[in-house]
């Protein structure tokens, strides 16, 4: 039984690699969005099982997107995993405080991302 | 979100509406079936909660009525009757879920959430997707202006795609959506319908590839622009690529683009635009590009590329125009990056378990709602080279423990919310992670509290208020305590005992040096510099009491723990040994567990002592007292073995400016970092110490002056290129100067060597700093 993952990232290359890598693992159906607002709309419509959200994006950034997702009754229950290239511990605890279930470091290893998501979801 | 609650139980209504409002629902209440119906007709609700036993019109009848009037919102039935017939009746009438009273508000709300998640979102009556228009009322789909002549199944397929434009539908899910159980369909039936649909699209002048095949999964409507990757990669004829092939192939496509991005960063750094108010700020652009590269290169197998990009990102952060130093650094780094990108990428690989990315670095988790104190401790921890994170509540702490696997936890017992209890967390940790040491720090300090936490295995109880410095002293003490290693010399004329000691102690990570006669003892002591000594009372030539006295007579060995193995249990011999300086006794025959417990207890205490007395807390390397002692020892050994020895003084250049410009915290951080670099750069037998301020001493045994200078030059080259990033948005580099003196040519004792090295250091500083002289 495959699960649906929504990836929100403004970097098209990253979006594409993550998309392909996850699909190749066979466990995931992948949705992609290249901005926070697009991601939010898709999340509401498609109800993915998990959202992978990049923190630094132009316009509505990851933090704002996170707040939108958490404040909307249609999306508040969807687990969110943050992706960040920033590693400072303060930021990480701040983001976990926002309600993310896990943080994935960027750059990610193509072969590991599927397992990282599975681990975060606890299956 | 608006909810209608229809129930004649006033009390329940009140309770439920309170809980629902607390979850941000808007609630209308009707107390009988008819008024409920009136509400439904007049307002729009996202969900209806219905009691079955209602005056005037009962719940099941009301449910049927609203379904027959085409109201599609989810309906949840409540009833006191828990019978199967009721449930069937309710669900058949069109209800979506069913709850038996007494109900719990949490369960009700959870079920509501589930229902609302499932609910179809009302879409506008006519949907447009690029040139396609879907009109559900007429069951028509048109491309541009022309209506497509579709069969019902083709229409269904197209509707599915258009309504969920980003979703990939697998064969199974398409069949599930469009075919009933009575008329099972196979994958190739779906394929046939897709094919015919594509043909019809083509006939109408559209692109048949608008319906896109996602290899191995299914279909979706094409979402990206022409020329996008998905177009190039989604071809039916290709065998599926493996992950690394995919990554390599994508890299092939974007390599040139990426190199161009790096070059544009380089160009921007060179031009160093001062036009900061410009909307299209090139500096900002370069900064974002560097950030993106840092976040993506590693994925394509350029881990080092990501690191370099991150350094560039830090250098580009901020508003001030770049100074020449930064410009040169960025130029250098971009050059490095371009070189790096020309290499073949490392293949993606799954690492064993990558739970903690910097598993070599020890990490501290602080669980306290006092975030100000927490931040102070984090800073203090960083200055000691420890990772630290703050969890402001017990719940977050649990989540963070899973992710970070801290080496040690600092835990407050009291939290403002009564449901957050530090003791409960401590209990959990004691049960699930007994290996993680926990330090309690709290205002609570009754004996009962202290006893409770001790029983739960806490390692220390600190009473607030306490400075972050004091707290970290204790935390690092416990951490070092935790992974203790040590060098032990055992002297005994009984080879069996020595063998036994080796067998007992080596597996525990201790280094054991055995001697079967005390005659060579003094030389061995000097060379191996042990952490603990095990001697016997009766030995040939010198007995245990002699040895103890000789050792304690030499100031350097005053703190060396001495354990004595003995058959004697008479108080007099023991008293004599104690007076001579022994620390503890172990009775023969040696009992393993007792020996180990006594030995470790001694090692811990002396380690604690020595850490305070010998290690520079800021840099983690030896302090002046200890390194002087060690260098003197090396000089004596060098003299005895006729070996050269080099002594160097290193001094960070313009260090005062760093303190002035960025503050002493940053200065301390730089010293700490420098300490780390020195520790890594030299061999174990070399001595590295901080001699005060920004002055460091290094002694290299068996090394000629030329070799020593070469080695120091390498350290300087590495250190000079290191971009220091103490905090986000602050980045700079520091250089150092060094003066080298050689034993015995430049002096026979440390004082003379120091004088000579200091004089050459002064010359190096005069000559423009950033160099080594000898």
UniProtKB/TrEMBL annotation, chain A:
<feature type="domain" description="Response regulatory">
    <location>
        <begin position="4"/>
        <end position="121"/>
    </location>
</feature>
<keyword id="KW-0597">Phosphoprotein</keyword>
<protein>
    <submittedName>
        <fullName>Two-component response regulator</fullName>
    </submittedName>
</protein>
<dbReference type="InterPro" id="IPR011006">
    <property type="entry name" value="CheY-like_superfamily"/>
</dbReference>
<dbReference type="InterPro" id="IPR001789">
    <property type="entry name" value="Sig_transdc_resp-reg_receiver"/>
</dbReference>
<dbReference type="Pfam" id="PF00072">
    <property type="entry name" value="Response_reg"/>
</dbReference>
<feature type="modified residue" description="4-aspartylphosphate">
    <location>
        <position position="54"/>
    </location>
</feature>
<dbReference type="InterPro" id="IPR050595">
    <property type="entry name" value="Bact_response_regulator"/>
</dbReference>
TrEMBL record, chain B:
<dbReference type="Pfam" id="PF01627">
    <property type="entry name" value="Hpt"/>
</dbReference>
<dbReference type="InterPro" id="IPR036641">
    <property type="entry name" value="HPT_dom_sf"/>
</dbReference>
<feature type="domain" description="OmpR/PhoB-type">
    <location>
        <begin position="124"/>
        <end position="223"/>
    </location>
</feature>
<feature type="modified residue" description="4-aspartylphosphate">
    <location>
        <position position="536"/>
    </location>
</feature>
<dbReference type="InterPro" id="IPR001867">
    <property type="entry name" value="OmpR/PhoB-type_DNA-bd"/>
</dbReference>
<dbReference type="InterPro" id="IPR016032">
    <property type="entry name" value="Sig_transdc_resp-reg_C-effctor"/>
</dbReference>
<feature type="domain" description="GGDEF">
    <location>
        <begin position="643"/>
        <end position="774"/>
    </location>
</feature>
<feature type="domain" description="Response regulatory">
    <location>
        <begin position="363"/>
        <end position="479"/>
    </location>
</feature>
<keyword id="KW-0597">Phosphoprotein</keyword>
<dbReference type="InterPro" id="IPR008207">
    <property type="entry name" value="Sig_transdc_His_kin_Hpt_dom"/>
</dbReference>
<dbReference type="InterPro" id="IPR000160">
    <property type="entry name" value="GGDEF_dom"/>
</dbReference>
<dbReference type="InterPro" id="IPR036388">
    <property type="entry name" value="WH-like_DNA-bd_sf"/>
</dbReference>
<feature type="domain" description="Response regulatory">
    <location>
        <begin position="2"/>
        <end position="116"/>
    </location>
</feature>
<dbReference type="InterPro" id="IPR039420">
    <property type="entry name" value="WalR-like"/>
</dbReference>
<feature type="domain" description="Response regulatory">
    <location>
        <begin position="487"/>
        <end position="603"/>
    </location>
</feature>
<dbReference type="InterPro" id="IPR011006">
    <property type="entry name" value="CheY-like_superfamily"/>
</dbReference>
<feature type="DNA-binding region" description="OmpR/PhoB-type">
    <location>
        <begin position="124"/>
        <end position="223"/>
    </location>
</feature>
<protein>
    <submittedName>
        <fullName>Two-component response regulator</fullName>
    </submittedName>
</protein>
<dbReference type="Pfam" id="PF00990">
    <property type="entry name" value="GGDEF"/>
</dbReference>
<dbReference type="InterPro" id="IPR029787">
    <property type="entry name" value="Nucleotide_cyclase"/>
</dbReference>
<keyword id="KW-0238">DNA-binding</keyword>
<dbReference type="InterPro" id="IPR001789">
    <property type="entry name" value="Sig_transdc_resp-reg_receiver"/>
</dbReference>
């Amino acid at each position: 039984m495959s699960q649906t993952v929504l990836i929100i990232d403004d970097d098209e290359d990253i979006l594409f690699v993550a998309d392909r890598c996850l699909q190749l693992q066979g466990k995931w159906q992948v949705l992609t969005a290249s901005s926070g607002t697009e991601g939010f709309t898709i999340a509401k419509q498609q109800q993915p099982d998990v959202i992978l959200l990049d923190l630094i994006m132009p316009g509505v950034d990851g933090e704002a997107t996170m707040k939108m997702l958490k404040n909307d009754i249609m999306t508040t229950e969807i687990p969110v995993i943050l992706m960040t290239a920033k590693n400072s511990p303060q930021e990480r605890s701040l983001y976990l405080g926002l309600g993310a279930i896990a943080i994935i470091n960027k750059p990610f290893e193509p072969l590991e991302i599927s397992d990282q998501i599975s681990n975060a979801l606890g299956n | 979100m608006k909810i209608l609650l229809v129930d004649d139980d006033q009390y329940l209504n009140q309770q439920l509406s309170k809980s629902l409002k607390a979850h941000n629902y808007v609630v209308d209440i009707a107390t009988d079936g008819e008024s409920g119906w009136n509400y439904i007709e007049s307002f729009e609700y996202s969900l209806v909660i219905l009691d079955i036993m209602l005056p005037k019109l009962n719940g099941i009848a009301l449910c049927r009525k609203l379904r027959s009037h085409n109201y599609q919102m989810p309906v949840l039935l409540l009833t006191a009757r828990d019978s199967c017939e009721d449930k069937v009746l309710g669900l058949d009438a069109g209800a979506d879920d069913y709850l038996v009273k007494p109900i719990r508000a949490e369960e009700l709300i959870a079920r509501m959430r589930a229902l609302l998640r499932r609910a179809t979102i009302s879409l506008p009556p006519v949907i447009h997707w690029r040139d396609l228009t879907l009109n559900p009322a007429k069951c028509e789909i048109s491309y541009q202006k022309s209506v497509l002549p579709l069969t019902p199944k083709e229409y269904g397929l197209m509707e599915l795609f258009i309504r969920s434009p980003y979703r990939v539908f697998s064969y199974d899910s398409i069949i599930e959506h469009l075919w009933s159980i009575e008329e099972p369909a196979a994958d190739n039936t779906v394929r046939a319908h897709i094919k015919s649909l594509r043909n019809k699209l083509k006939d109408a002048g559209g692109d048949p590839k608008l319906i896109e095949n996602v290899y191995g999964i299914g279909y979706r409507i094409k979402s990206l622009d022409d020329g996008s990757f998905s177009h190039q990669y989604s071809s039916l004829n290709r065998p599926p690529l493996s992950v690394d092939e995919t990554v390599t192939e994508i890299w092939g496509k974007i390599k040139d683009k990426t190199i161009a991005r790096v070059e544009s960063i380089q160009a921007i750094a060179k031009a160093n635009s001062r036009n900061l108010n410009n909307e299209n700020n090139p500096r900002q652009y370069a900064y974002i590009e560097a950030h993106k590269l840092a976040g993506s290169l590693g994925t394509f197998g350029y881990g080092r590329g990501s690191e370099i990009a991150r350094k560039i990102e830090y250098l580009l952060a901020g508003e001030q125009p770049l100074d020449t130093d930064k410009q040169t650094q960025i130029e250098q780094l971009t050059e490095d990056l371009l070189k790096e990108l020309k290499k073949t990428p490392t293949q993606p690989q799954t690492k064993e378990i990558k739970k903690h990315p910097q598993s070599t670095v020890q990490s501290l988790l602080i669980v306290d709602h006092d975030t100000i104190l927490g931040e102070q401790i984090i800073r203090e921890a960083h200055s000691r080279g420890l990772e630290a994170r703050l969890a402001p509540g017990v719940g977050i702490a649990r989540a963070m423990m899973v992710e970070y696997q801290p080496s040690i936890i600092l835990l407050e017992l009291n939290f403002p919310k009564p449901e957050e209890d530090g003791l409960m967390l401590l209990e959990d940790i004691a049960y699930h992670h007994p290996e993680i040491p926990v330090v309690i720090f709290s205002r609570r300090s009754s004996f009962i509290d202290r006893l409770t936490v001790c029983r739960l295995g806490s390692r220390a109880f600190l009473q607030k208020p306490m400075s972050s410095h004091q707290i970290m002293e204790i935390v690092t003490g416990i951490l070092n305590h935790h992974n203790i290693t040590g060098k032990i010399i055992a002297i005994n004329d009984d080879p069996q005992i020595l063998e036994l000691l080796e067998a007992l102690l080596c597996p525990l990570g201790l280094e054991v040096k055995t001697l079967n006669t005390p005659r060579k003892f003094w030389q061995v002591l000097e060379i191996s510099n042990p952490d603990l000594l095990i001697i016997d009372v009766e030995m040939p030539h010198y007995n245990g009491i002699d040895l103890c006295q000789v050792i304690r007579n030499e100031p350097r060995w005053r703190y060396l723990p001495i354990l004595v193995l003995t058959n004697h249990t008479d108080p007099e011999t023991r008293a004599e040994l104690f007076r001579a300086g022994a620390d503890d006794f172990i009775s023969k025959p040696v009992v393993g567990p007792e020996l180990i417990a006594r030995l470790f207890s001694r090692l811990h205490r002396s380690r604690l002592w020595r850490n305070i007395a010998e290690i520079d807390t800021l840099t983690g390397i030896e302090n002046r007292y200890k390194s002087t002692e060690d260098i003197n020892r090396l000089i004596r050994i060098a003299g005895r073995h006729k070996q050269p020895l080099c002594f160097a003084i290193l001094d960070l250049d313009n260090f005062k400016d760093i303190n002035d410009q960025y503050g002493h915290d940053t200065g301390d951080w730089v010293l700490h970092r420098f300490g780390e670099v020195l520790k890594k750069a030299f061999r174990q037998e070399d001595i590295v110490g901080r001699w005060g301020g920004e002055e460091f001493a290094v002694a290299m045994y068996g090394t000629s002056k030329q070799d020593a200078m070469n080695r120091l030059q390498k350290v300087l080259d590495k250190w000079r290129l290191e971009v220091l990033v103490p905090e986000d948005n602050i980045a700079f580099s520091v250089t150092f100067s060094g003066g080298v003196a050689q034993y015995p040519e430049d002096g026979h004792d440390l004082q003379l060597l120091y004088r000579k090295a200091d004089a050459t250091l002064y010359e190096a500083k005069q000559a423009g700093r950033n160099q080594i002289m000898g």
